[in-house]
Each structure stands twice: as C-alpha cells, then as structure tokens.
Amino acid sequence: MSLIQVENVTKTFHSTSEEVTPISNLDLVVEKGEFVVLMGPSGSGKTTLLHMLAGIDRPTKGVVRVAGEEVSAMSPSQLARWRTRAVGYVFQQYNLIPVLTAFENVEVPLLLLRLSRAEREKKISTALAAVGLSDRAHHLPRQLSGGQQQRVAIARAIVADPVVVFADEPTGNLDRNAAKMTMEMLRRLVDEFGKTLVMVTHDPVAAQAADRIVHLDKGQIVTEATHA
Ligand SMILES: Nc1ncnc2c1ncn2[C@@H]1O[C@H](COP(=O)(O)OP(=O)(O)OP(=O)(O)O)[C@@H](O)[C@H]1O
Ligand SMILES: [Mg+2]
Questions:
Q1: For residue 49, which ligand has an atom nearest its CA?
Q2: In CA terms, which of 17, 54, 129, 183 is 20 to 30 Å from 191?
C-alpha cells in the first residue's frame, strides 16, 4: 500500500466576499521512501496541498490517507496527536524559537511524547549529528547562519522519527551554497534514514534532488516527471 494516498481532494476557502478553491478533485500517490517535489506557480495550491497531507488543514471533500490512517477524517485533537508522532515539517522561515538553543529547539517535539530525559538527549544528539551540527548545539538561532538554522529545523523535523517529512520552500531564504547543503541533508533523510519526503520548491536546482517532480497548476496536477 502506498504511504500517502490523496483521493479526489478538493479544498475551498470561504471568506465573506469570495470563495477560493485552490485544490480541486486532485489525486496523488506517494510511495514509502520516495522523495517527491511539488512545483507550480504562486497561488497554484502547493502549500494548501502540503497542509492537508500534514494534517495541518482538512480537505473540504475527498480522502487523505497516510500510512493507512485516514487523516482527513480526524478531529482537530486527533490531528494534533497524529502530527506529533507521524509528521516532521520544515518551513521556509525556519520557525525556530529565538530564546532556545539549537538543542532546546530540537527538543520541543519530544516534550509532547513520554520520554525520559536520557532518551530525549540521545535522540537530540542523533538528530543534530545527522545534520552536521553537533558542535553548534548550545548556540542560539541568532548565533547561527541561515543555512545552519535551517539544518536545526530539519533536525527538529526528524527528531521524533516521523514516518513522513514535509518541507515548504526550505531553501527559499538561502544562498546557493546553503541551499545545496540543505538539499544534501534532505536527500540523506530519504537515502540513509528511509524517510518519505514531500517538498515544495520554486528552485529547479533543488528539485533535481527529488525522485519525482509533480507540477501543480490551478489546483490540478498537470504533468509528472520522473528522474532517473
Ligand atoms: N486560509 C486561507 N484562506 C483563504 N484563502 C486561502 C487560504 N490559504 C490559501 N488561500 C488561497 O488559496 C490559493 C492557493 O494558495 P497556496 O498558499 O496554496 O499557494 P502556493 O502554491 O503555495 O503559492 P506560493 O508559491 O506563493 O507559496 C491562493 O489563492 C490563496 O490566496
Ligand atoms: Mg506556498
């Protein structure tokens, strides 16, 4: 069975003046261990789709299943619990907590799980080592470069050992070198740690790291290209 199954999903936002339907009747399947990139023009519904896959938002119509669980049918509190154990999410703006060190930022998702302090420390050290930042554990975000901050955010996304990692324009704020390093880290999550990764990007160079590129336009998948 595929890890992610999106069946006939539509998302409509209602506001007082108008209705927007960024995703309509969309089908998508992602296999376990696959690295899929979503590309498409601004406003084509990429973030909206990622939010529904990650259980941050629910579809108006249709079904989203992840690892056999029907995410689209969960209540808000079920979704919150599910996200904690199953999902890692990397944002364009890193979203680190400025008053916490790298170590403490990576610790945050673990505080929602029942773990001893020793178990937490082991997982945090492993995650920071995986992104090459063991020597920056006690730095605050402002003492780190943008690329290093994004690697802390990746460590935070994987520390609870989620089944799937989502990333929304993770290299959007980075220069070419830092973007390249970030992409190498993300590729390693798939190759060495067996994670499944769905990433949104505008950057054709970053997209080259993927196994498959899915193009969205006006809420529909327009073409899918598979890399060798
Ligand atoms: N919470 C919301 N309420 C109302 N409209 C929304 C909401 N979220 C997104 N939209 C609308 O849905 C459409 C798709 O937005 P989305 O953020 O998914 O685009 P995107 O492909 O991620 O674009 P970008 O590349 O600029 O990030 C846009 O027209 C946006 O204004
Ligand atoms: Mg977006």
A1: 1
A2: 54
CATH code, domain carrying 178 = 3.40.50.300
Per-residue pLDDT, 179: 95
Site of tokens 């519904």: 45
Residue nearest atom 27 of ligand 1, based on CA coordinates? 42
The residues of the chain scoring below 50 in pLDDT are none
* pLDDT given at position 146: 95
Cβ(12)–Cβ(186) under 8 Å? Answer: no
**Separation of CA 22 and ligand 1 centre (Å):** 7
DSSP string for 200-221: E-S-HHHHTTSSEEEEEETTEE
- Between vectors from CA 97 to CA 84 and to CA 77, what angle results, nearest 5°? 25
Residue 167's domain comprises 4-226
pLDDT of residue 225: 66
Query: What's the confidence (pLDDT) of residue 16?
Result: 83
Query: Is residue 46 lining ligand 1, measured as CB closer than 6 Å?
Result: yes
From 12, 24, 44, 220, mutation site for ligand 1 pocket: most ligand atoms within 8 A of C-beta: 44
Torsion of CA 43, 46, 52, 58, to 10 degrees: 10
Structure tokens at 106: 């990576």
Instruction: Please give the number of the atom of ligand 1 that sits closest to the Cα of 169.
Output: 27
Distances (CA, A) of 217 to 27, 194, 211, 214, 223: 13, 30, 20, 10, 9
Note whether 130 and 188 are within 8 A (CB).
yes
Enter the DSSP assignment of 173: T
